[in-house]
Design brief:
The structure holds 3 protein chains of 3 kinds. By secondary structure, chain B is an alpha+beta fold. Helices cover about 25% and strands about 35% of the residues of chain B. Classes of the chains: A mainly alpha, B alpha+beta, C mainly alpha. At the B-C interface, strand 6 and helix 2 of B face helix 9 and helix 10 of C.
C-alpha cells in the first residue's frame, strides 16, 4: 500500500524498546563500576562479581531457589499438560468449567492473594492432618506448581488447538491405544510447547518473591527473598552483578532456543 | 463532419474522451517486473477485462489504478486528471476485493454505508442510498446481519454494493467471481453485466478465467509477464489473435510453424517446416505485407477445421490422417487426428453436424480442411 | 465397501471408544482438577472463613475455624468485625480506591505505549517480527524484582536521571523521583508492558491487510481507517491486554513497596503489612477477600476472552 512510511509508529516502537532496555543496560553498565556508589562511574572493575561469588547467603539462596524451580517446572509440566489436554481434547466433561476457571484465574490473580491463600491452607492442613509439618521448600514448591501449571496448561492448550486431530485419529485408526497415541504421536508433536512451558514455569518460580515469602519458613529463604531484603536497604553493586549474570543467562538461553527453532524450521522445509 | 455514428464504439471513435489513460506504467518488486511498460486507454461505460494467468501482473495493474501501488514509471489519468500520486482515499475509484474484505465487526448495512460516512452526507440520505443499493443486489433482508452470517454469494453481493454505493466513475473488480462455485458464477456473470449496464459505471475486471472475460467484457487485454500482449473485443481476440501467446492462451488452437514463400494480394503461401505434400503448403489470409522467408506460425481453431471422409479439392488447406481420439463433450465432439509428419491436429464438430455427416470412429482415415480466411498468420 | 450409514456407525463407535473406554482418561482430567481444587480452590474457602474469625495470640494467630461445643454440636462462629473495620477505617478504602486508580492509569499508559509497539511490529519485514517480539519478551524472562530494582538506581536523588539532567544544566539540585507515585506508575508500566504488547500483537497480526485497503478505497484516510477498522478489530486484544495488566497491578506489592513513598497507599502493600508486620491474619484475609470481590468481574471477563481465543 502506498501509505507513507508510518514514521510515527516506528519512532514510538523505538521509544518502547528504549524504555524496555535502558534500565537493563544501566544495571549491566554499573555492575562493572569500581565505586560502591552505584551511580557514580569510578572506573571499570569486576570486583563485584568476585564478591558475589563469595556471598554465601546469596549463593545458598540461589541453590534453594534452583532446586525449587527445577522441581516446580517438572511437576507443573506434568500437571499442566494433563490439564491442557483435558481442556482441548475431552470435549465437555464434568468439572470442565471449574478446571478452565482455575487454569485462567492464576494468570491474573495478584500474588499477595495467591500467597496468603496458600499459606492459610498449609496452616489449616497442618492443624488438621499434621502435613505439611512446618513450612519450607515443600510448601513453596506446592504453591509455585499451583500457579505455574496454569501457564503450562495455557501454552499446551494453544499448541494442541492448532494440532491436526487427524494425526491422532490416524494412529488410533491404525490400532494404537489412546495412551500409546498420546506418548508416540501427541507428546512429540507438542514437545516444543512442553519445553517452553517448562522454561516458563522454571523462570516464574525463580522470579517469585511474594508467594515464596508467604509460604516459606525458617531456613528456606529463596534468592528473590534475599535480594529483596538487600534491595530494601538500598542499591548494591553486587545485586547489579547478579542481575547481569541473570540477563546474560536468559539471553543465551533465548538465543539458543531461537537458533534451534530456526534450524528445525529450516530442516523441515528441506 | 457528420458527427459520431451510433454504431461506432467508443474505442473506435477518435473524438471520444477516454476515462482511464495508463501511460507507460512500470512497477517492479525487487528485480521482478510485475508490470512492464503498460499503456492502456479505457472509455466510459466499458466493461474491460484484464486477462492472464496468475502472476502476469494484472492484479498489480489493478492495484496501481486503485492507488495501493505506486508505479515506478509512467502516469495514470482518470477522467483527464493525473491521479498517479493520489492516495486511494482521494481517487474517484472503488474496488471490489477478491477476498471481499468485508469489515467483520460491521453489519451488512454498516459495511455498505462505510464509504458514505466519510463524506458529509446527511444521515437520511445515507440510509436511503444504502437501502437502494441493498435492494439492487437483493440483500435488503440481510441488512442487519454480520458478514460471517452470510453465504459466499451473499458476501460477494455485499462487497459489490459497498463498492458501488459511492457512485464511482470507475469500479475495479479483482477476480469478483473467483470464490464462487461454478453454477453461482455463471448466474452472477449475467447479474454483474446487468448492474453495470443499468448504472452505466465503467468496470475494469481482473480474471484468470477466459470464458468469464469473453462473456462479460466489451473489450479485454491479455497479459503475460507484466506486458499486454493484445487488446481487443472478445471476438477480435478469439478470431484474430495477434501472436502465439494469445492464440495459445485463449481456447484451443492448431499451430503450424513455417516460412512465407510468397504473397498473393492478401493471401500468404506458407511452407510448413519438416513436412511434405499437401500438408507442406498452407494458405492463410493476411492484411499485412510480409516478405518471403519470414518465419510465421499458422494458427487454426479446431472448430474451423472440417473433418470428413471426402477429399477436399487440391489447392485447399488440406491434411490427411488417422483419428486417434474422440472426446464427446455433449454439444460438440473433438477429434484428434495424427497426420503424416507426426503431429496431432484437433478438429471440432458440433454434434448436429456429426449426426448429419458420415460416421467417423477410432482408427478411421479422415480428411481435414479449412478456409484460408479462417486461419491466422502469427508473425511473432 | 461399507455404506455411508455403516461408516457413520463406525465413526460414532470410534469416537465413543475414544471417549469412554480410554483407560486412565479420568485421571488425565481429575489429577489437575484435584491439585487445583486442593491448592487453589480450597484456600479461598479458608481465606473466606478466616476473614470472619478473630485475631488471637498464638499460632495460628486466629480463632479456631470450627468449634466442637460442649453439646457435641458443630459450632461455627462468624465475626464480621474485620469487614466492618475495612469499611470504617479510611486506610483500607483509600488503599482500595488508590490501587484501582493507579492500576487504571498504568493500564492506560501501557495501552498507549504498547499499541504503537504492537502495530509497529506488524508493519516491519516478516523476518524481523519474531526477533522484535523476542525483544519484548526478553525482559519478562529476567527477574521481575531486579527490573524494578533497576529503576531505583535510575530514579533516586543521585541516580541516572538526576545526574544526566544536572550535567546538562537543566536542574540545579537532585530530582527526587524515587518514592513517589510517579515512580509507582513508571514501575508498573515498565513491568507489565510485555503483557500488553503480546495479546495486542496477536490480534493485530491476524488482521487482513485488505481491510485497511478497503477502508482507504472507500475514502478513509489512514487515521480514520485506524479508528474505524484497526481499533474495533483489535478490541479483544485490547481487553485481554488491559486485564493482564490491570488485575495484577491492583494487587501489586513489590513495586509500591520499592518505588513508592510512604504515602503511596496500595492494597497489596496493606495486605502485606497486616500479615507480616501486624500479624493480623484475619484482617489480612478479609483484605484479600475484599480484593477478590473487586477482581471477580475482571477475572471472569478475562477468562471468557481467553476461552474464546482458545476455541478460535
Amino acid at each position: 500500500m502506498t501509505v507513507r512510511r508510518p514514521t510515527l509508529v516506528f519512532s514510538l516502537l523505538a521509544f518502547g524498546y528504549a524504555f524496555l532496555y535502558t534500565p537493563i543496560f544501566s544495571l549491566i553498565v554499573y555492575s562493572f563500576n569500581e565505586s560502591r556508589l552505584v551511580t557514580v562511574w569510578a572506573g571499570f572493575s569486576t570486583k563485584w562479581y568476585v564478591s558475589l561469588l563469595h556471598n554465601e547467603q546469596l549463593l545458598g539462596a540461589a541453590w534453594i531457589s534452583l532446586r525449587i524451580a527445577l522441581m516446580n517446572a517438572t511437576l507443573a509440566v506434568v500437571l499442566g499438560t494433563l490439564a491442557g489436554t483435558a481442556l482441548v481434547r475431552f470435549g465437555r466433561f464434568r468439572g470442565r468449567s471449574a478446571l478452565a476457571l482455575m487454569i485462567g484465574a492464576p494468570l491474573v490473580m495478584p500474588d499477595v492473594i495467591l500467597g496468603l491463600a496458600s499459606l492459610l491452607l498449609f496452616v489449616a492442613m497442618e492443624q488438621l492432618i499434621g502435613w505439611p509439618a512446618g513450612r519450607g521448600m515443600t510448601t513453596i514448591t506446592i504453591a509455585h506448581v499451583t500457579f505455574s501449571m496454569a501457564y503450562v496448561a495455557v501454552i499446551v492448550q494453544s499448541r494442541l488447538v492448532r494440532l491436526d486431530p487427524s494425526l491422532e485419529e490416524a494412529a488410533m485408526d491404525l490400532g494404537a491405544r489412546p495412551w500409546k497415541v498420546f506418548f508416540v504421536i501427541t507428546l512429540p508433536l507438542i514437545a516444543p510447547a512442553l519445553a517452553a512451558g517448562w522454561l516458563l514455569a522454571f523462570t516464574l518460580s525463580l522470579d517469585d518473591l511474594v508467594i515464596a515469602s508467604f509460604t516459606s519458613g525458617p531456613g528456606a529463604s529463596t534468592l528473590p527473598m534475599v535480594v529483596y531484603s538487600s534491595v530494601r536497604l538500598g542499591v548494591s553493586p553486587e545485586i547489579n552483578a547478579l542481575a547481569t549474570v541473570l540477563v546474560a543467562l536468559v539471553t543465551i538461553g533465548i538465543v539458543i532456543a531461537g537458533w534451534s527453532m530456526q534450524r528445525k524450521a529450516r530442516q523441515t522445509q528441506v | 463532419m457528420a458527427g459520431p455514428r451510433p454504431e461506432l464504439e467508443a474505442w473506435q471513435d477518435p473524438t471520444a474522451a477516454p476515462l482511464v489513460e495508463i501511460n507507460g506504467v512500470t512497477k517492479t518488486f525487487g528485480s521482478h517486473y510485475a508490470v512492464d511498460d503498460v499503456s492502456l486507454t479505457i472509455f466510459p461505460g466499458e466493461f474491460f477485462s484484464l486477462l492472464g494467468a496468475s502472476g502476469c501482473g494484472k492484479s498489480t495493474l489493478l492495484r496501481v489504478l486503485a492507488g495501493f501501488e505506486r508505479p515506478d514509471k509512467g502516469r495514470v489519468l482518470i477522467g483527464g486528471e493525473d491521479v498517479t500520486d493520489l492516495p486511494p482515499y482521494r481517487r474517484p475509484v472503488n474496488m471490489m476485493f477478491q477476498s471481499y474484505a468485508l469489515f467483520p465487526h460491521l453489519t451488512v448495512a454498516d459495511n455498505v454505508a462505510f464509504g458514505l460516512r466519510q463524506e458529509r452526507i446527511p444521515r437520511g440520505e445515507i440510509r436511503q442510498r444504502v437501502e437502494d443499493m441493498l435492494k439492487l443486489v437483493r440483500l435488503n433482508e440481510f441488512a442487519r446481519r454480520k458478514p460471517d452470517q452470510l453465504s459466499g454469494g451473499q458476501r460477494q453481493r455485499v462487497a459489490l454494493a459497498r463498492s458501488l454505493v459511492k457512485h464511482p466513475k470507475l469500479l475495479l473488480l479483482d477476480e469478483p467471481l473467483g470464490a464462487l462455485d461454478r453454477k453461482l458464477r455463471e448466474h452472477t456473470q449475467f447479474e454483474l453485466v446487468n448492474i453495470q449496464e443499468r448504472l452505466g459505471i465503467t468496470f475494469i475486471m481482473v480474471t484468470h478465467d477466459q470464458e468469464e472475460a469473453m462473456t462479460m467484457s466489451t473489450r479485454m487485454a491479455v497479459m503475460n509477464e507484466g506486458r499486454i500482449r493484445q487488446i481487443g473485443t472478445p471476438s477480435e481476440i478469439y478470431e484474430f489473435p495477434s501472436n502465439r501467446f494469445v492464440a495459445g492462451f485463449i481456447g484451443a488452437v492448431n499451430q503450424f510453424e513455417g516460412r512465407v514463400v510468397e504473397q498473393q494480394d492478401d493471401l500468404l503461401l506458407v511452407h510448413v517446416d519438416d513436412s511434405e505434400g499437401d500438408a507442406a503448403e498452407l494458405r492463410v489470409r493476411s492484411s499485412q505485407a510480409v516478405a518471403p522467408g519470414t518465419p510465421v506460425v499458422v494458427a487454426v481453431r479446431p472448430e474451423k477445421v472440417r473433418i470428413g471422409t471426402t477429399e477436399p479439392p487440391a489447392g485447399d488447406n488440406r491434411l490427411h490422417g488417422r483419428i486417434e481420439e474422440i472426446a464427446y463433450l455433449g454439444d460438440v465432439s473433438i477429434y484428434h487426428v495424427r497426420v503424416p509428419d507426426g503431429s496431432l491436429i484437433e478438429a471440432q464438430l458440433t454434434n448436429r453436424a456429426r449426426r448429419a455427416a458420415a460416421p467417423l470412429t477410432w482408427g478411421d482415415e479422415a480428411w481435414l480442411g479449412w478456409n484460408s480466411e479462417d486461419a491466422v498468420a502469427l508473425l511473432e | 465397501m461399507p455404506s455411508p450409514s455403516l461408516n457413520k456407525v463406525l465413526q460414532r463407535a470410534r469416537r465413543g471408544l475414544r471417549q469412554h473406554l480410554t483407560p486412565g482418561r479420568g485421571a488425565v482430567a481429575s489429577l489437575p482438577l484435584l491439585w487445583l481444587g486442593l491448592f487453589f480452590g480450597l484456600p479461598f474457602l479458608i481465606i473466606a472463613r478466616i476473614s470472619l474469625s478473630e485475631v488471637v495470640i498464638g499460632l495460628p494467630p486466629y480463632s479456631a475455624l470450627v468449634d466442637l461445643a460442649e453439646s457435641g454440636m458443630l459450632q461455627v462462629r462468624l465475626n464480621f468485625a474485620n469487614f466492618l473495620l475495612l469499611w470504617e477505617d479510611n486506610l483500607y478504602l483509600d488503599a482500595f480506591a488508590n490501587s484501582v486508580h493507579v492500576a487504571s492509569v498504568s493500564t492506560l499508559i501501557c495501552l498507549l505505549i504498547g499499541y504503537p509497539m504492537a502495530l509497529g511490529i506488524t508493519r516491519v519485514r516478516e523476518s524481523l517480527r519474531v526477533p522484535l517480539l523476542m525483544l519484548v519478551i526478553l525482559p519478562f524472562w529476567t527477574s521481575f524484582l531486579i527490573r524494578v530494582y533497576a529503576w531505583i538506581g535510575i530514579l533516586k536523588g543521585n541516580g541516572l536521571i538526576s545526574n544526566v539532567l544536572m550535567s546538562l544544566g537543566l536542574i540545579d539540585e537532585p530530582l527526587h523521583l524515587l518514592h513517589t507515585e510517579f515512580a509507582v506508575y513508571l514501575g508498573i508500566v515498565y513491568a507489565y508492558l510485555p503483557f500488553m504488547v503480546l495479546p495486542l500483537y496477536a490480534t493485530l497480526s491476524r488482521m487482513d491487510n485488505a481491510l485497511l485497503e478497503a477502508a482507504a478505497d472507500l475514502g478513509c484516510r489512514p487515521l480514520c481507517a485506524f479508528w474505524r477498522v484497526t481499533v474495533p478489530l483489535s478490541l479483544p486484544g485490547i481487553i485481554a491486554g488491559s486485564l493482564l495488566v490491570f488485575v495484577p497491578a491492583v494487587g501489586e506489592f513489590v513495586i509500591p513497596d520499592l518505588l513508592g513513598g510512604p504515602d503511596t497507599l496500595m492494597i497489596g502493600k496493606v495486605l502485606w503489612t497486616e500479615f507480616f508486620n501486624n500479624r493480623d491474619w484475619p484482617v489480612a484475609a478479609s483484605v484479600a477477600v475484599a480484593l477478590l470481590a473487586l477482581l471477580v468481574a475482571p477475572v471472569l471477563l478475562f477468562e471468557r476472552f481467553r476461552e474464546r481465543g482458545q476455541s478460535e
